[in-house]
């Protein structure tokens, strides 16, 4: 499912004295099946954009195309159910949305709202609870008896169980320990690879964007200022600094390494693994020549 | 939706009324509420309206905010108005429709009572719009201080009030967030048939309660570790200062009172 934002503008509390402009002429193209990162400094409008992706907010200017559905500014939309089913959002601190007596019921809540039968919903719950790395036994527990990390996973399972075509992630690893962080990010990445899910990651972690994204949009002061492949966008550190962003640590490391050994690797490495491989190549070449 | 709420909102400014001591403002509003009940005929109500308009003018608050503050009590106002129109008897019959008779007295009472509501809401809105919640609490605490002698926990009450006020915006934000999260999971309180909407309240309230209790516990712990032990021997950062303008304001109110009593007795 493609999502296209065209010249989106949004103001909070429109037509009141508290009106606050959040977005100006935002253009983002999200292609089906891609892993798309939206990055930007705090207050750049990322979260506002995110809420447009399944019509929780409707633009005050411009239009959004979500699959077949077109949402135009100023027009009333009645049936947004289908859009909301197809685009699942994992909000920041999703554990705050848990409310049912048992984990099972909570995971079934989303799917059942979209008309899935109880039986099927429970099947899905069993499937997704394992997928997020928890034991099936946890399904009978109260979500409020779990640890923070477990609650996060349950909440994520609850969104995945809706079987959306597009999954939107808003800082999904905020407040997790490094290990949990990596596990959750890898989980989403494998979902993306295996099921060809479109992923939209809203983050200010340049490392995550560099490692996972196929495509990247940079937001700055309510505008979408750049879109392109991470390798391309991260090659211009100066431009990024203008938007108060830094290149990922690994790129900074590569730059200082290149400066020290006086040799250009010729390729911008986005992950540690990539860099290790490139360095390995150079070392082998040097050895062969010697 | 939440962002349109006007109730309890403070709008900073530098008008005469903004600069008044919160104690004076509280006394002023409280006395005004009592004075409103002195009014019972056309001249007294006109006097009240003129006075209120003057206060609105002096406060330099945009009318928009006051009209907005009126919205929650609108239903009550219309209801009492209709009640008087249809059920108060006396004077001439002015409208006669089948079994419905509207009396002159009914219309008059209806208008009077609605006016009463109107001036009361305007006055109290001006109080909250021109005074920060913190100053209101400070003022209230100082005014109620004498009650300490009869063992009323004044400081604790004031603290409770300021904490409650402080957390209104936080809870609103939280409600908004949880509402959106549940909407994304297909349950929507803002649209759809009534039955569905009522069902959608539970997924909203439970997380809200859970987080409110957590927050309260955290706050209590944070206060305790910083050695909080009530108002005993506590000094204040914000000192209240009674100025000449406060005395003037109260004198003006006394004048209004005298005028109302005079108008009531002589017309």
Automatic annotation (TrEMBL), chain A:
Q: Which GO terms describe its molecular function?
A: ATP binding; ATP hydrolysis activity; ATPase-coupled transmembrane transporter activity; cobalt ion transmembrane transporter activity
Q: Where in the cell is it found?
A: Cell membrane
**Record membrane topology:** Peripheral membrane protein
Q: Is-annotated flag, keyword Translocase?
A: yes
All copies of domain ABC transporter, residue ranges: 3-246
CDD domains xref list: ABC_cobalt_CbiO_domain1
Q: Name one Pfam family in it.
A: ABC_tran
Instruction: List, alphabetically, the InterPro entries matched.
Output: AAA+_ATPase, ABC_transporter-like_ATP-bd, ABC_transporter-like_CS, ABC_transpr_CbiO/EcfA_su, ECF_ABC_transporter_ATP-bd, EcfA2, P-loop_NTPase
Q: What does this protein do?
A: ATP-binding (A) component of a common energy-coupling factor (ECF) ABC-transporter complex.
Could you describe the subunit structure of this protein? Forms a stable energy-coupling factor (ECF) transporter complex composed of 2 membrane-embedded substrate-binding proteins (S component), 2 ATP-binding proteins (A component) and 2 transmembrane proteins (T component).
Q: Could you tell me what this protein is called?
A: Energy-coupling factor transporter ATP-binding protein EcfA2
Species, as recorded: Kurthia zopfii
Classification from the root reads: Bacteria, Bacillati, Bacillota, Bacilli, Bacillales
From TrEMBL, chain B:
Q: Please, which domain of life does this record's source organism belong to? A: Bacteria
Family matches, as InterPro entries: ABC/ECF_trnsptr_transmembrane, EcfT
Name where it mostly resides.
membrane
Topology of this chain in the membrane: Multi-pass membrane protein
**Stretches that traverse the bilayer:** 26-57, 63-87, 117-134, 154-172, 244-263
* Keyword terms of this UniProt record: Cell membrane, Membrane, Transmembrane, Transmembrane helix, Transport
**One MF term in GO for this entry?**
transmembrane transporter activity
A Pfam match is CbiQ
CDD domains the UniProt entry points to: EcfT
- State whether keyword Transmembrane helix applies: yes
Cellular compartment(s): Cell membrane
Provide one Gene Ontology cellular component. Answer: plasma membrane
Q: How does it assemble?
A: Forms a stable energy-coupling factor (ECF) transporter complex composed of 2 membrane-embedded substrate-binding proteins (S component), 2 ATP-binding proteins (A component) and 2 transmembrane proteins (T component).
Regarding protein family, the annotation reads:
Belongs to the energy-coupling factor EcfT family.
| Entry function | Transmembrane (T) component of an energy-coupling factor (ECF) ABC-transporter complex. Unlike classic ABC transporters this ECF transporter provides the energy necessary to transport a number of different substrates.
* Protein name according to UniProt: Energy-coupling factor transporter transmembrane protein EcfT
Q: Which organism is it from?
A: Kurthia zopfii
Q: Which gene encodes it?
A: ecfT_2
């Amino acid at each position: 499912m493609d999502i296209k934002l065209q010249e989106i503008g949004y103001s909070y509390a429109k037509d009141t004295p508290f009106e606050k402009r959040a977005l100006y002429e935002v253009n983002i193209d999200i292609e089906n099946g891609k892993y798309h990162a939206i990055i930007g400094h705090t207050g750049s409008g990322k979260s506002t954009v995110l809420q447009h992706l399944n019509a929780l907010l409707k633009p005050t200017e411009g239009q959004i195309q979500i699959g077949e559905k077109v949402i135009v500014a100023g027009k009333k939309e009645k049936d947004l159910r289908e859009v909301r089913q197809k685009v699942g959002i994992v909000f920041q601190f999703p554990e705050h949305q848990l409310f049912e007596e048992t984990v099972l019921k909570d995971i079934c809540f989303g799917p059942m709202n979209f008309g899935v039968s109880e039986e099927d919903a429970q099947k899905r719950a069993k499937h997704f609870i394992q997928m997020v790395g928890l034991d099936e036994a946890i399904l009978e527990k109260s979500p409020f008896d779990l640890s923070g990390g477990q609650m996060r996973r349950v909440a994520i399972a609850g969104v995945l169980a809706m079987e959306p075509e597009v999954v939107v992630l808003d800082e999904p690893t905020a407040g997790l320990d490094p290990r949990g962080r990596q596990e959750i990010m890898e989980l989403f990445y494998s979902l993306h690879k295996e099921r060809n899910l479109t992923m939209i990651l809203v983050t200010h972690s340049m490392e995550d964007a560099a490692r996972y994204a196929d495509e990247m949009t940079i937001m700055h002061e309510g505008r979408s200022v750049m879109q392109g492949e991470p390798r391309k966008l991260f090659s211009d550190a100066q431009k990024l600094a203008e938007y108060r962003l830094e290149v990922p640590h690994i790129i900074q490391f590569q730059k200082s390494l290149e400066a020290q050994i006086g040799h250009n690797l010729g390729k911008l490495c986005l992950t540690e693994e990539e860099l290790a491989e490139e360095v390995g190549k150079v070392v082998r070449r040097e050895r062969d020549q010697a | 939706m939440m962002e349109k709420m006007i109730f309890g909102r403070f709008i900073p400014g530098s008008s005469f009324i903004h600069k008044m001591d919160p104690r004076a403002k509280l006394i002023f509003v409280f006395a005004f509420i009592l004075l409103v009940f002195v009014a019972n005929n056309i001249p007294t109500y006109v006097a009240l309206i003129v006075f209120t308009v003057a206060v609105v003018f002096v406060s330099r608050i945009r009318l928009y905010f006051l009209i907005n503050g009126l919205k929650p009590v609108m239903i009550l106002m219309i209801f009492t108005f209709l009640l008087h129109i249809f059920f108060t008897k006396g004077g001439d019959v002015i409208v006669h429709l089948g079994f419905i008779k509207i009396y002159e007295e009914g219309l008059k009472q209806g208008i009077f009572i609605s006016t009463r509501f109107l001036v009361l809401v305007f006055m109290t809105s001006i109080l909250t719009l021109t005074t920060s919640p913190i100053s209101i609490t400070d003022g209230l605490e100082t005014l109620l201080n004498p009650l300490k002698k009869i063992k009323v926990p004044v400081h604790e009450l004031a603290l409770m009030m300021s904490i409650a006020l402080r957390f209104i915006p936080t809870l609103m934000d939280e409600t908004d967030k949880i509402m959106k999260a549940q909407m994304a999971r297909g349950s929507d309180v803002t649209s759809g048939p009534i039955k569905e909407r009522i069902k959608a309240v539970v997924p909203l309230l439970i997380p809200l309660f859970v987080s409110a209790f957590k927050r309260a516990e955290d706050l209590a712990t944070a206060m305790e570790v910083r050695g909080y032990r009530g108002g005993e021997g506590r000094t204040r950062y914000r000192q209240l200062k009674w100025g000449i303008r406060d005395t003037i304001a109260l004198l003006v109110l006394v004048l209004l009172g005298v005028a109302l009593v005079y108008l009531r007795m002589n017309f």
